[in-house]
Amino acid sequence: DTEVTQTPKHLVMGMTNKKSLKCEQHMGHRAMYWYKQKAKKPPELMFVYSYEKLSINESVPSRFSPECPNSSLLNLHLHALQPEDSALYLCASSLLGQTNTGELFFGEGSRLTVL
Amino acid sequence: AQSVTQLGSHVSVSEGALVLLRCNYSSSVPPYLFWYVQYPNQGLQLLLKYTSAATLVKGINGFEAEFKKSETSFHLTKPSAHMSDAAEYFCAVSDRSGGSNYKLTFGKGTLLTVNP
User: From CA A78, how far away is CA B58, in angstroms rounded?
Assistant: First the structure.
């Protein structure tokens, strides 16, 4: 059982819709990540939050807007997406500081389809 | 810059046969190395990790990997394949030169199929 919970598991949206993906973890991790994964490809990093502050943005288009309301929650707000944005969106979390080895704990993902 | 190369995008074995998935890394400093498994329509699950303790690392589901610095390799093995091992496997590297944020670099993945 994963300790990183993502909702919804599946989302279908039109190009004019506004929707959000949600992620929650209760492991006390202070880093949270959004990855995008296309079929038969490795995950691609989108955003990293450290101590609730955005620390890495991998030049992601502004139609993707991340938010970290607190240390347990991570959102990804979606607006005016394109069909090529259809993918599996993975949330992950990790420790920070001396005990950090870079190990990521992944959620099950949210499968997004843009029509 | 760190990088990972997984040799073979697709490996096919018979049930009961040895599984060997190859991973070579490039890093300017001693790395942390990981193998993740992904079943269809699921997230990534950690199989095992190397963090500079023992060079032979045992993981879940009977998998193990050996860190060989001289060969810059971290190959994943399992003595006897099971049908349930069919999945996509990703090798990843995270070096120690970063600050508080680590960016895992993933290999392109190896799809393992297991034939009855």
Answer: 40
